[in-house]
Design brief:
Order of helices and strands: HEEHHEH
Structural class: mainly alpha
Number of strands: 3
Strand content: 5-15%
Helix content: 55-70%
Shape: elongated
Number of domains: 1
Largest sheet: 3 strands, antiparallel
Number of helices: 4
Strand order of the largest sheet: 1-2-3
Radius of gyration: 21 Å
């Protein structure tokens, strides 16, 4: 049991916080705004940033509408894949661990909506960018963290190779 907790604590803690925050914010929007209604604290800010109660039966950017069941099944598959793969990720690979945790939280946050109400609630509206939510943001930021982690790892490995090459050149008396 200790090994299970040690293995999954980080994953479920980060994902759980994201799901709770996502569901709480969606509840607040759903409780205070009718679908299509928006709120902005200052009139001058409205064209740039506002809270709007919107729903989405597709995926990010409003793509593939009316495919709620398909994306619910995909979220379940992706979630299980993350849970199965996570124990294989070394603790030192922090970027991958954070990225997977964020992606799991985002997938589960939107899955709760798909199962509970048949669509995803979106509410963050910035300029003309498609409306999104905390779960969507978590998935997107998780991808960015993953890419950043890969880039940093490659830079580190290149530096290590370069250092090895330089030390071999200095140790070889024939050069």
């Amino acid at each position: 049991m200790k090994k299970f907790v040690r293995t999954y604590l980080f994953l479920f803690l980060i994902a759980g916080v994201i799901v709770v925050l996502d569901q709480w914010t969606k509840f607040m929007v759903q409780s205070n705004l009718m679908v299509g209604e928006f709120w902005s604290p200052w009139d001058w800010m409205t064209p740039y940033a506002r809270i709007v109660h919107w729903y989405n039966t597709g995926v990010a950017f409003g793509l593939f509408q009316n495919a709620n069941l398909f994306f619910a099944i995909m979220a379940i598959i992706v979630s299980f894949a993350i849970i199965l793969y996570f124990p294989r990720v070394p603790v030192q690979e922090w970027a991958l661990r954070i990225a997977l945790s964020m992606q799991l939280g985002g997938a589960l946050g939107n899955l709760v909506d798909r199962i509970r109400i048949g669509h995803v609630i979106d509410f963050i509206s910035l300029g003309t960018f498609p409306v999104f939510n905390i779960a969507d943001s978590s998935i997107s930021v998780g991808v960015a963290v993953l890419l950043l982690g890969i880039w940093l790892q490659e830079r580190h490995e290149k530096r290590m190779r370069d250092t090895e090459i330089m030390s071999e050149i200095h140790e070889d008396p024939s050069t």
